[in-house]
Amino acid sequence: MSQAKVPTWVNIALIPILNILLAFLVSGLVILAIGENPIEAAGYLIYGALGYNEGIGYTLYYATNLIFTGLAVSVAFKGGLFNIGGEGQAYIGGLGVGLICLSLDHTMPFYVIAPLAVIGAAVFGAAWAYIPAYLQARRGSHIVITTIMFNFIASSLMVYLIVNWLKEDGRMAPNSRTFEESAWLPYLHELFSPLGIDIGDSPLNLAFIWALLCCVFVWGLIWHTRWGYQLRTLGTNPTAARYAGIDTAKVTIWAMLISGGLAGFVGLNEIMGVNHNLLLNFTAGYGFAGIAVALMGRNHPIGIIIAAILFGALYQGGAELNFEVPTITRDIVVVIQGLVILFSGALEHMFKDRIEGFFIRRAVA
Amino acid sequence: MTNKTMPYAIELRDISKRFGAVQANKDICLQVPAGTIHGIIGENGAGKSTLMSIIYGFYEADTGYIEVDGKRVDIRSSQDAINAGIGMVHQHFMLVENFSVLENVMLGAEGGALLKGGVAAARVELQRLAKEYSLDIDVDAIVEELPVGLQQRVEILKALYRGARILILDEPTGVLTPQEADHLFRILKALKDQGVTVLLITHKLREIMASTDNVSVMRQGEMVSHRETIHTSKEELAELMVGKKVRLTVDKEDAQPSEVLLSAQNLSQFDSQGVKRLKNVSLALRAGEILGIAGVSGNGQSELLSVLSGITPMDEGEIHFAGQVINAKAPKNAAQMRDLKMAHVPEDRHKMGLVTGFEAYEAAILGYHNSPVYNGKVLMNRKAMLDECNARMAAWDVRPPNPYLKTANFSGGNQQKIVIAREVEQNPDVLLIGQPTRGVDIGAIENIHEQIVKLRDAGKAILLVSVELDEIMALSDRIIVMFDGAVVGELDAKDADERTLGLMMANAHYKEQEGEQQEGVSA
Fold first, then answer.
1. B379–A225 C-beta distance less than 8 A
2. DSSP code per residue over A176-194
3. B228 with B165, same domain?
4. In chain A, which residues have their Cβ closer than 8 Å to the Cβ of B310?
5. Is residue B153 part of a domain?
6. Which of A124, A301, B184, B422 suits B374 as a labelling partner, its CA being 20 to 30 A distant?
7. Which residue on chain A is closest to B364 by alpha carbon?
8. ipTM
9. Contact state of B335 with A244 under an 8 Å Cβ cutoff
10. Residue-number span of the structural domain to which B131 is assigned
11. Distance between CA atoms of B500 and B87, rounded to whole angstroms?
12. Is-contact B249 B223, C-beta < 8 A?
């Protein structure tokens, strides 16, 4: 029982923090190599992401998308399923939001459109996850392969729909008309300003609150409901699940439906919250980044919020850094994100043995 | 035996291996003269496979060493074993199914980056080997298109191609038809004539008697005796294999069996390869009796439990239980069987009975998680789960009595108590119980046995599957013996002794009669 002597905070805090610091250290070397000052760069990055109200707003706006996709990955993962299709499910979820908004924004008030849009996002995202789920559960096609393929199909489908059906007449740009304001999710700064609180002008909108509610929902669902119990049994020991009489195919399909629905909520933030029209490629890789977020957050809602904010800060701080130091391009920022994923995901256990050994020796001494 | 000055082909000195609390091999000594066929026999779990894995370099022994041709060798990997001239034919073939025979044989010994030269050389060498050992085979045939017997021949050729002078065969006839098995033994004789030393691992007495020169018996991790095959008999080997262990006694009254609670007719089941694993099994289980299923592990008992409990549907036959007829057209899953008041303590608590990542109170409701007792309107009632877990831990003396501890961190006996308590406390009518005391310490065994008898006395019907003969004899009121997926005998527990059961389990006399009948027919 040597494991028992390692304090919990070592595993859940010290090791992840060390991994991230190491990622930043290597990033610093990269920046040094292109002839810039890493300390200065880090300053811009941190200030840009967390140093002032607007920056924080942008960071949380990016984090909103990552919370949705991170939760999506973690729900599937709890059932032993690796959903790589968050990108496609988010894209189609956005289609659901867009269609609701386009068809109702002239006739309905916000409080009718908003709940319908939430349902639309969930139903469309879930529907896109259903086909791979069915193929996995009933036909044994591997979910990793099918969900990856469905990302490409989603991408082609959206191009077809937007260019041929939803594009605004007489315009070149491949996007739909702008929604009426009744179909806009209010920005948080607009909600806060009447109360006399200035949180800075940013795209952060009501979808962030919904993301936090989803975290609570996922936490309750997985750890406090019968369905979550079945899901975790299936994910950790499928043989025991069959022994317990759990309908594994049904649980598999529902896990993917919920996963796809959560990913679909990205559409709320992007389409209804910020862009206010249906456009191409608004998912911008959030579905894939969600995998890293879930991995770093250890598939727990609290961890996912923290990891999503970290990645959101990298997006926002990175953009700021690129603005201030033009030689540090978007691509270098992507390299830094990649290093964080590499050290906290793929190389997660690099120091684990040594650090745990240190604490065990200290406990023995 | 043979020339005393010749060193042994392979000699094991005091090999020991321990996995956690299990002593898999204990001070094993073995001497195998060159050019002989040496049988190693023992029940499943006796440590045969572990020993062979040590010889072939899959595991390293904790203590002891191996000599080949009188020289000590250090075997840390299968490559070391191959270099020492040891080859192995595994129970489950290690072949690339869509490669040809030639490609399979040269796999790992390609002889260079480009295949062409290697292929030509391998073809010549393979033809020479095939001729020398009379192992005829089409070297360009695709392996998956070959019958199982020929696939095994490819495995043997693979070992010989790598220069094996010592060949280990692990349960080689498990997958063969009797005719293919006879052919295999002729090949082994031919190999022996060419000076190859053969180690044959099996639990089938007939094969030992038919093909070996010497035989060693393993029991519970120890090598208990060595015999020359001509100076022993099936009966003696059966007795040595099963052993005369201290008979565990359980105080129990005579059974008062009443009405039949569960009956099964002609249950059959096929595995994914289409092999019939369960063959027309019929049985009746009465209230107030313990029906023991004896048999060497892997003879259909697991499939029987799996079908009876609803985990896998049967392919043929039907079950009558609780007023329902359950068959392939109207199957019931494990949850539905539980609803009809059937409980099941599975054979393997790690793989099936528990989710080892769960905390004890969560694992303690597995299978009963739909019960209203543990559920509120939306959320699960964690307090009810915890209260019940605490109460059961106290009643069953589970240590430590901590419902939050991960089930993986309990000892085997305490894990088993969690599983048995879970199933028994639901007050079932029928209890299926597999290997109730596997890996459980002596004190806990007594406790578990008492609980099983208590259930019987309360009028429950109990089906007990165990590979421990002692346990079967101590607990059962009636005993059914299974062999090769079928019921081969039934007797009253009062008439059962270890030798009779052992012979029935190895199907020694039945098989022989059958063989004679077959010969009679064909003559």
1. yes
2. -PPPPGGGPPPBHHHHHGG
3. yes
4. 245
5. yes
6. A301
7. A244
8. 0.80
9. yes
10. 10-242
11. 37
12. no
